[in-house]
Design goal:
Layout (H helix, E strand, L loop, with lengths): L1 H22 L5 H14 L3 H13 L4 H18 L2 H15 L4 H21 L3 H15 L4 H17 L3 H12 L5 H17 L3 H17 L3 H17 L3 H18 L2 H17 L3 H17 L3 H17 L3 H18 L2 H189 L5 H22 L2 H5 L2 H15 L3 E7 L1 H5 L3 H22 L3 E8 L3 E8 L13 H12 L3 E6 L5 E8 L4
Helix pairs in contact: 2-3, 2-4, 3-4, 4-5, 4-6, 5-6, 6-7, 6-8, 7-8, 7-18, 8-9, 8-10, 9-10, 10-11, 10-12, 11-12, 12-13, 12-14, 13-14, 14-15, 14-16, 15-16, 16-17, 18-19, 23-24
Length: about 700
Amino acid sequence: MLQQFKYIYLSILAFLFIQLCWSQQPTTETQWFQKGLTLIDQKQNYQEGIKALDSAALLNPPLPLLIQVKYAKAVALNSQGHFTKATSILLKNIPLINRCDSTKRVKFHANNYRVLGDVYKSKGKHLLAMKNYQKALKFSEQYSKKSSALILHQIGVLLLEKEDYYGAENYFIKTLDANLTPGLKLGIHLNLGEVYSKTNRKNKAKTQYDKAKKMALEHNNQVALCHIYIGYANLFFENKNYSKSIDYYEKVITLSKNVGAQLLTTSSLLHLAIAYHETKQSFKALTYLDKAAVFLNKEPSLNYQLSLYEIYASVYENVGNYESSIYYLKKVATVKDSLFNTEKNKQFEELKIAYETKKKQQEITLLKLQRKKNELELSQKEKALKTLNLEKELEASQHQNTILQLQKDRSENKNKIVILKKSRELAKTEASKSQQLKNAYLIGFIVFSIPLSVLLFVYYQKLKTQKALAKKQEELNVKQILNLKKEQELKNIKASVEGQEKERKRIAQELHDAVGGSLAGIKLQLDHLSSKEPRLSSIISHLDETYNQVRHISHDLLSKKIADKEFTQLIKNHIEKIVTSTHLKIEMSFFDETLINKTNNTIQTHLFKILQELINNTIKHANASTIEIQLNAHTDMINLLFEDNGKGFVYNEKVEGIGLKNINERITTLNGTLIVDTSPNHGALINITLPLIPQ
């Protein structure tokens, strides 16, 4: 009985201890941030980790902590496969980082650009990934060797995805020599295993996977275990041991679902489809392919989509459905054109070679400097030795000459003593005369030099003053010229904008007053005749529609409604009208609405017209179902991000459509920048940045 009571007592204590631990929730932004990192890095619980990071952000943390919170959230979203959200967060982080001091700015940019490269790599956009890795490497070289090693490792992973296996191997082995963190060492072993597997070095591949597995189990790294099991499964698959391969892929699906790593789940589904296809179980393969396609339709990744379409084509061919097989083969060709574009590969190789060339050039420069230093030291030593020998010879000859000179001087001195005694008396008389003459010359020189010195000093001061005045006058002239140029440029810009607005107003008034008035008069005349002629009712109906269209066009041409309403509310109203009249789903978000609404009316007018043009283009050409719009205002610029999931297009800066040409002209008028990221079948991302003009 006593023993039973003891167990009950211990159970109650354990229960109370657990409740106490759970009740100790974080209270500050730093504690929420640390909790989020722990959930993401150590437990791979991305969903709860993101919630903790959002709680930290809601408490208005200081700027450096807010940047780290957003960066950590982007890392978690990328691991879950939410690439679009991760990209948006990282791009918004860049202007925040620029506001930090130089030390933190270097560190934060290195990390931010590295993760941005990871996201673009996951999306299959290798050129953008390489550009961001290069930016990250530039900052990390000023900050930390470990950070540089991590970025070099990621470049190796990028080369591995592009099937440059030996290039990737060189990067991994170089990185392995650095003083790395356990997590990075684990990643290198894992990637070396994949390199050896792809280059048919199976034993070496298994050795690397075994090392990675040991480290992953020690640190309970579930995500790394997923990659390791995929490596084991691939080895079994290549040895045609399909049952073992399928077992490992199933393990990966279970693990990846637990940690919320959707991209790993998708990868395993594709591998399982291949395994079942090889074992002639085509219908099972199609089931797994359909599951993978669900995720890739939400978050497109060119590499995975290419694999998906290739497997679909092969499976449908195997079951005799040749029409579907040809359909997916066409999709494969489209993705390959986008993924392996010659120009992009050329730029990618140029970026890679540029970095390696830069390093080699630095080494060559150091060797040249060292050689010059050695040559200089050697020549200096030779000169010093020659100088020493000459000094010794000169000293010996001088010593001998001194002895001879002393002997000669002794005899001459005796004669000179006699002569000096005689000449001393003569010298005394001449000296007295000479002294008198010198005194007279000295007095005359002093009397003449005093006024001359005064005149020279006055003349020098005058020249100095004139020179200073001339310099100041020249500086004032340069400043006046620059100010006049700037004023003229501003006047030209204002005149252009005002002229456009006046022309729009004139056309709107002409349409409203002349054309609209004429249409109204015709309608009144037809109304009198409609009772006599019933067929005129349809004509009157068309006439009403035409009149309303003229009124809408005239009202759209005027920017008055922008001046009368808050700008953000005007955009919301416009989007609501489009959503109610189309099948589109539009998500709109604003950052700092107060600053957006205070923006100069000219910028607001152009932004509204640009937004109208972008939405119209999407409705007419993109065949999209969703649009995401973000309008962010900062102290010195305003940024518009517009993204749709439509069919995309081939963008050429030299050959633009009318819509993009109009947009570009508006942006150029405001000294802004336009970035278009699009390709066929992968939607479009339009990034517009405009400098703020004070209201």
